[in-house]
Write a structure and sequence with these properties.
Length: about 500
């Protein structure tokens, strides 16, 4: 055993120290309990013997003392009392007769358990002749057992301490040192270490638990070395596979990059062609829409130059003004579609915008068709302050409301008993405010679907509209980061819902 191993015996958390403490505590506790129990039993036995003196005095001495007192034989009485005082365990005697102390021996320390008073009766007359006070030496008995208990505990503690230290050193010798050796081996062993674990134990025969543990560790070491070799082989193979796969992926990525580059070029070409086609279609549509009123303006302008009739001049001027206004409306709508407007973002009460949109629509219709629905329902929520492009939003709502009134007008012309109804409502749903415009007019054919938002698509008669109202409204809703959708049942009703976010986020 090396000095280094010996020093480790006294480490704070060593198994040997824990075993020492546990063994000493258990042994001391058991010794204390057993010794205390034995001393209590012995003390009780001796105490009972001491108490038996009271019985002996009562049965053997009182009658003779009564005879001596009756006959006034003081000499025999003193001899008897001297013998009684020498009785084992008696520490004090006092005889009192006729209120006089006849005999007293020892030092009195009366307690309930060591003192007793006997009355001395005459056998024939039952007359009390005197009293005898007897005290037993209980204190000496206790002192004896306390001293004996102390000596027993000292002897047992010394014996226990010797046994515990012997066990401590034996346990270290046969177990702890070898466990530490095994731990040092497990800490220092390397992945390629071929050294097997061996325990150097002298005079050791047979196989015990430590030998089984050493065999298991050596077997584990052998299996671990084999597993490490397999793992290294697998790692090499895996690295080769990763290298090959990386090379393949690099080649494929280069091919994909070339393909993506070609696709992007094709997409750019297709987008350019699509833009040219859309621009050509839009240009043709705009040219067609402007050409019709422009022809009217040109033709009636020629008539105006040749006419001298004042009434005819007024009528021609009215027609020219009407078609010029239509051209102006088309140009303004195209400006809005192209984003050419100077509207600014400002916080506005949505309910006030809805009311003003209806009033402006009615005022504008007074210049052409004088039809106004007889009933309009406002179902507006509480004041809703939202940042909006007020002028653009007002224009969008005016376009939708004008279409609704036009649908009511068409149904009213076809059915005299028809009761038109227009509903304007607002509501907050989540983080959006919704503006609802509902009418019970002619409705929208299902075949049109989302095409109603396409430019220049209109169901109105020639000259009544350019087909840009819903397109403008749709673009303005998107400008606010919102949506414009509709539901309709042809011949029954139509409902448009414009949803605008409560918090505006400017789109780039």
């Amino acid at each position: 055993m090396t000095p280094r191993d010996s020093r480790r015996w006294f480490r704070r958390n060593s198994l040997s120290l824990k075993l020492l403490i546990a063994t000493w505590a258990v042994s001391s506790f058991a010794t204390l309990i057993l010794t205390a129990f034995q001393l209590i039993m012995d003390y009780q036995r001796d105490f009972d013997k001491l108490q038996n003196n009271f019985v002996i005095i009562k049965n053997s001495y009182l009658d003779s003392m009564a005879e001596h007192l009756w006959s006034y034989d003081t000499r025999l009485l003193e001899i008897q009392l001297d013998g009684l005082s020498r009785l084992q365990g008696v520490s004090y005697l006092r005889l009192v007769a006729d209120n006089k102390t006849i005999y007293e021996s020892g030092k009195t320390e009366p307690t309930e358990e060591n003192h007793k008073r006997f009355d001395i009766y005459h056998k024939n007359t039952n007359e009390i002749l005197g009293t005898l006070d007897v005290e037993l030496d209980v204190r000496s008995l206790r002192q004896k057992y306390f001293e004996e208990a102390f000596l027993i505990f000292i002897r047992q503690a010394a014996k226990t301490l010797v046994v515990v230290f012997c066990l401590y050193f034996i346990f270290n010798r046969i177990l702890v040192v070898h466990i530490q050796h095994i731990a040092d081996y497990l800490k220092g062993i390397g992945l390629r270490d071929k050294r097997s674990l061996e325990l150097k134990r002298r005079s050791h025969k047979g196989e015990d638990e430590l030998d089984v543990l050493v065999d298991s560790i050596n077997q584990f070491r052998t299996e671990r070395l084999a597993a490490n070799e397999k793992l290294e082989t697998l790692n090499v193979a895996l690295e080769q596979k990763v290298t090959d796969r990386t090379r393949q992926l690099t080649t494929k990525n280069e091919s994909l990059e070339k393909a993506m580059l070609q696709i992007k070029r094709m997409q750019a070409t297709l987008v350019a062609q699509e833009r040219l086609a859309s621009l050509g279609s839009l240009t043709a549509s705009v040219a067609h829409e402007i050409r019709n009123p422009l022809n009217f303006v040109l033709n009636f302008s020629e008539l105006l130059t040749d006419s001298e009739n004042l009434d005819e001049v007024k009528e021609v001027s009215r027609v020219i003004l009407k078609h010029s206004q239509r051209i102006d409306q088309i140009v303004r709508s195209m400006q809005i579609l192209s984003g050419y407007d100077s509207d600014v973002l400002e916080t506005t009460d949505i309910n006030e915008v809805v009311k003003r949109a209806y009033q402006d629509t009615v005022s504008n219709r007074a210049l052409g068709s004088a039809y106004v629905p007889s009933k309009v329902n406002y179902r507006l929520a509480d004041s809703i302050m939202v940042p909006v492009y007020a002028t653009s939003l007002l224009r969008a709502l005016t376009n939708v409301i004008d279409n609704a009134i036009h649908a009511l007008e068409k149904k009213a012309l076809a059915n005299k008993n028809f009761e038109p109804e227009l509903t304007l409502a607002t509501a907050v749903r989540g983080d959006m405010v919704e503006i609802i415009i509902r009418d019970n007019g002619v409705g929208i054919p299902a075949i049109l679907g989302e095409k109603i938002f396409d430019p220049f698509l209109t169901t109105k008669s020639a000259g009544e509209g350019a087909g840009l109202g819903l397109t403008v409204a749709f673009n303005i809703a998107q400008k606010h980061g919102g949506t414009l959708r509709y539901t309709s049942e042809f011949g029954q009703w139509t409902e448009f819902v414009m949803a605008i976010p409560l918090v505006h986020e400017r789109l780039t």
